[in-house]
């Protein structure tokens, strides 16, 4: 009933559609599938998280090693708790590792920068679920300006 | 008093129309499909609604991508942010324009012809005579057309987005001089598979369902006169366009708002 | 009387407020041509749809070979429909297929026969209606009479027991009218099927029908063989058979008095 030509054109159409989906996933998105790899969680408390958002990247020296998966407020001391999803291949950060909230460029997005601490026999490796103790909060522009003005004022 | 009466009547007719549409879809789709007989019918309809819509989708996708690049560039260059052209174009196409414009074009191109075709079959008693031959027109005529539209439209939307991005590349990179590497790498770092591409696909699947459903229902339910068919065709395009835009807002709010 | 194939008992059918049939009784004998006549607009086509199960009556029974059509389940109804077929007034050929595929359609849908056998069957049916030469034409290329003959070939494709003709003579020139009359008669004799002809073309129907029902005002107003109908004394039947403009069925659609309405216009 259906001619070979019609079958061919329909096949071509479906193949083209699937190719477009594939191209979108591979070429346009960041290799989306590796982002779904297995991760483990670390936690970090900050004074102030500024503009950090869920899914913000976590970088070591510019390389993305994970993403922020959750931001909540500790119900006891009212400080923000950030959950870090870190790819499993990066599993040997020591206790001395510090984490700070940085900004990419002047107007860019905020991200978490991880500075791996030295590894020593006296220091343990961070296990899934541990808290990173050494944290530096986001720079809030208004506070910076306030501090600057204050120090100017007191200097005179 | 009379206006209240009329309001009541039109409410009743809206709900009974919805009920008829649901019943029609149920009885067309809820049965064990016969693949041997169904396959050639589906291929034929995929050709009619899919392959034949390809040209309009490719051409409009290309132009929309080019316009986006041109407009986006003139805005972004003021902030020295023309490097963000790639992600801007890709995100607008993947999240919004791909699914929505493809759905609107599909409603105009394929939806209206589905309605007119089915309506004409009804007016010339072809559906009735099929029923008397113990062949259920819902399964023989409606079901393959519905599935073809449902399958074709997400594919068309993906092709639309891809061609749009290529069009933007043509204007942004080859004409306006944005660096090609920046264009792609900024796009890749900003676009996420799960959030942007999947959500766009979900949108176009929803739109495909709605537009094709309206098109086949309007044809099946139309008044079997030439005037009735023309009214049904118009209302297919109008209703599916409005519903696509309305649903787009709802879906966007559900998916991207935080 | 001979065997009854279709038996309609005390059937009442209403479309919204309007009563189409009230307590009507009709029996269609097996192997005969039964005609149903009546003025236009009294729902003769509706009667065929009722027999085919496309419409359901408000009350009463429609028995087809002992099975009550309105109460059948969907799948039983489709089984029964395989034993009957209907020739629509417009022919209702599928416009996207050529004549050959149109006639092959019911065979392909309901049987698992090979293409060779299907082709032979279709050619034989086309030969019977004299359209073997037109098998590659599209329905839009056929004249009205040819389309109706092609549709007739399609309705006999699966050798049904009952065939219902909806206005087979309407809008035909005398030659194709003669052809169709001959076809109905010869099909009925050759295949031994039962025919129901719905029409208001008195002379043609009189020439082929074994038994005639005349329906008007929601009821059967006259029945019998052609000869019996001619001898009827009822005014209504006479008016219909003789084709008089005015009589028990009034020429004027119900309206207010002419004088009253004209006066209103001049006011």
Describe the structure.
Chain C: This is ABC transporter ATP-binding protein. Chain C: Residues 6-242 form the ABC transporter domain. Chain C: InterPro entries: AAA+_ATPase, ABC_transporter-like_ATP-bd, ABC_transporter-like_CS, P-loop_NTPase. The complex is a heterotrimer of chains A (156), B (258) and C (267). Chain A has an eight-stranded mixed sheet with strand order 7-1-4-3-2-6-5-8, with no helix packed on it. The model of chain A has no long low-confidence stretch (mean pLDDT 80). With 156 residues, chain A is an alpha/beta fold. Chain A contains two helices and eight strands, in the order H-E-E-E-E-E-E-E-E-H. Chain A is elongated. Chain A has two domains: 1-34; 39-140, no CATH class. Chain B has one domain (35-256). The longest helix of chain B has 39 residues, at 85-123. Chain B is elongated, with a radius of gyration of 21 Å. The mean pLDDT of chain B is 89. With 267 residues, chain C is of the alpha/beta class. Chain C is 38% helix and 24% strand. Chain C is built from ten helices and ten strands. Chain C has helices at 44-51, 74-81, 99-110, 115-129, 144-155, 174-191, 202-208, 226-230, 235-242, 258-266; strands at 4-15, 18-29, 33-37, 59-64, 67-68, 84-87, 162-166, 194-199, 211-216, 219-224. In chain C, the strands form two sheets. In chain C, strands 6-7-8-3-9-10 form a six-stranded mixed sheet, sandwiched between helices. A four-stranded antiparallel sheet of chain C has the order 2-1-4-5, with no helix packed on it. In chain C, helix 6 links the parallel strand 7 and strand 8 (194-199). Classes of the chains: A alpha/beta (156), B mainly alpha (258), C alpha/beta (267). At the B-C interface, helix 5 of B face helix 2, strand 6 and helix 3 of C.
Key features of this structure:
heterotrimer; B: 258 residues; C: 267 residues; alpha/beta; four-stranded antiparallel β-sheet; 10 strands; 38% helix; 24% strand
């Amino acid at each position: 009933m259906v001619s070979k030509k019609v079958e061919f054109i329909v096949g071509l159409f479906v193949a083209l559609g699937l190719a477009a989906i594939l191209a979108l996933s591979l070429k346009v998105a960041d290799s989306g599938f590796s982002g779904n790899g297995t991760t483990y969680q670390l936690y970090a408390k900050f004074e102030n998280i500024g503009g950090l958002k869920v899914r913000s990247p976590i970088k070591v020296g510019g390389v993305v090693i994970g993403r922020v998966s959750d931001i909540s407020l500790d119900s006891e001391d009212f400080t923000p708790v950030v959950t870090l999803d870190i790819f499993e291949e990066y599993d040997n950060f020591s206790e001395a590792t510090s984490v700070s909230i940085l900004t990419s460029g002047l107007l860019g997005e905020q991200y978490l920068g991880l500075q791996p601490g030295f590894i020593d026999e006296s220091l343990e490796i961070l296990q899934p679920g541990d808290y990173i103790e050494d944290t530096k909060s986001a720079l809030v522009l208004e506070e910076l300006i306030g501090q600057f003005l204050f120090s100017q004022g007191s200097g005179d | 008093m009379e206006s209240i009466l009329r309001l009541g009547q039109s409410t009743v007719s809206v709900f009974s129309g919805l009920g008829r549409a649901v019943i029609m879809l149920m009885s067309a789709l809820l049965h064990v499909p016969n693949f041997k007989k169904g396959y050639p019918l589906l291929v034929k309809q995929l050709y009619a609604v899919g392959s034949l819509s390809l040209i309009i989708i490719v051409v409009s996708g290309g132009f929309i991508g080019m316009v986006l690049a041109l407009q986006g560039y003139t805005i972004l260059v003021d902030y020295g942010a023309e490097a963000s052209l790639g992600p801007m174009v890709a995100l607008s196409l993947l999240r919004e324009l791909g699914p929505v414009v493809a759905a609107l074009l599909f409603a105009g191109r394929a939806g209206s012809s589905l309605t007119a075709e089915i309506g004409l079959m009804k007016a010339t008693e072809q559906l009735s005579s099929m029923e008397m031959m113990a062949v259920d027109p819902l399964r023989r005529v409606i079901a393959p057309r519905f599935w073809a539209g449902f399958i074709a439209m997400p594919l068309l939307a993906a092709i639309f987005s891809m061609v749009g991005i290529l069009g933007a590349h043509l204007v942004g990179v080859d004409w306006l001089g944005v660096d090609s590497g920046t264009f792609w790498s900024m796009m890749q770092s900003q676009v996420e598979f799960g959030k942007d591409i999947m959500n766009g696909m979900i949108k176009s699947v929803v739109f495909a369902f709605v537009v094709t459903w309206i098109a086949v229902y309007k044809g099946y339910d139309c008044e079997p006169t030439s005037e009735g068919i023309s009214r049904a065709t118009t209302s297919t395009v109008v209703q599916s366009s409005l519903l696509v835009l309305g649903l787009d807002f709802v879906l966007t709010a559900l998916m991207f708002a935080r | 009387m001979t065997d009854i194939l279709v038996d309609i008992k005390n059937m009442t059918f209403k479309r919204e407020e309007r009563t189409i049939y009230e307590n009507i009784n009709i029996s269609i004998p097996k192997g005969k041509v039964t005609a149903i006549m009546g003025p236009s607009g009294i729902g003769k086509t509706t009667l065929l749809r009722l027999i085919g199960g496309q419409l359901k009556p408000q009350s009463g029974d429609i028995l087809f070979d002992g099975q009550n059509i309105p109460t059948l389940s969907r799948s039983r109804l489709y089984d029964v429909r395989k034993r009957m077929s209907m020739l629509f007034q417009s022919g209702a050929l599928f416009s996207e297929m050529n004549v050959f595929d149109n006639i092959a359609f019911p065979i392909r849908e309901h049987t698992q026969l090979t293409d060779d056998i299907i082709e032979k069957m279709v050619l034989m049916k086309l030969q019977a209606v004299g359209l073997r030469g037109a098998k590659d034409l599209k329905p839009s290329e056929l004249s009205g009479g040819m389309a109706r003959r092609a549709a007739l070939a399609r309705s006999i494709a699966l050798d049904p027991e009952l065939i219902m003709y909806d206005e087979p003579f309407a809008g035909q020139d005398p030659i194709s009218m003669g052809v169709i009359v001959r076809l109905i008669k010869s099909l009925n004799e050759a295949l031994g099927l039962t025919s129901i002809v719905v029409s208001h073309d008195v002379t043609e129907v009189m020439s082929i029908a074994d038994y005639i029902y005349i329906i008007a005002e929601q009821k059967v107003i006259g029945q019998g063989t052609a000869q019996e109908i001619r001898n009827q004394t009822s005014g209504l039947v006479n008016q219909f058979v003789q084709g008089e403009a005015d009589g028990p069925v009034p020429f004027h659609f119900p309206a207010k008095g002419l004088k009253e309405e004209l006066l209103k216009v001049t006011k």
